[in-house]
Amino acid sequence: DAGVIQSPRHEVTEMGQEVTLRCKPISGHNSLFWYRQTMMRGLELLIYFNNNVPIDDSGMPEDRFSAKMPNASFSTLKIQPSEPRDSAVYFCASSLTSGGGRGAGELFFGEGSRLTVL
Amino acid sequence: GEDVEQSLFLSVREGDSSVINCTYTDSSSTYLYWYKQEPGAGLQLLTYIFSNMDMKQDQRLTVLLNKKDKHLSLRIADTQTGDSAIYFCAESIDYGQNFVFGPGTRLSVLP
Fold first, then answer.
1. Between residues 37 and 96 of chain A, which touch chain B (CB distance below 8 Å)?
2. pLDDT (tens digit, 9 = 90+) per residue, A56-107?
3. Which of these, B33, B1, B86, lies nearest to A43 by C-alpha position?
């Protein structure tokens, strides 16, 4: 199993530009989470999906942030326009919320996308 | 709302035991987790415990749960330099959903 795959691993952009982060969850997982990690605020949940439907987006900072999950194997997190304070590591994670198989209930994280907005 | 608290830093000498502590507020938490994050990497699950258990041991790792005090601890025996990382405590009341993470404890292992 390839695990949760995120791209890009690193992105440097200028203020005002659009940023799109991508995530491929583990095949068969039915929940997907986007987190943001900074030194100041730690790990913050931005949004999570269950069966491709957004369940809780209360952590999305503002309208500049949007997330989509068009199918079970792909999700995007978009920031438009980006600002320097958006600089952080963005993690995607997935889990299986049913069944009792190995790993069920566990949250699996990708390697993260490190975003720097100049 | 739910809240998970941890001390932010811990330093130990190589070979000593490390104990990382965590407190949580939601008494309905059914799953409690310890995740490890190495530099430049994502979080990886180290171990977890169900709320109906008091203790779980897995090789060098021992997890203790005090439900009355809502206190969770992770003990690492014979701590090695490779154990240097950030350790996150997390709780979940729903199977595989609604995770609440603590701020993480940065463990430094000194030679």
1. 42-43, 45, 48, 50, 55, 91, 93, 95-96
2. 899 998 899 999 999 999 999 999 999 999 999 999 999 987 655 555 578 8
3. B86
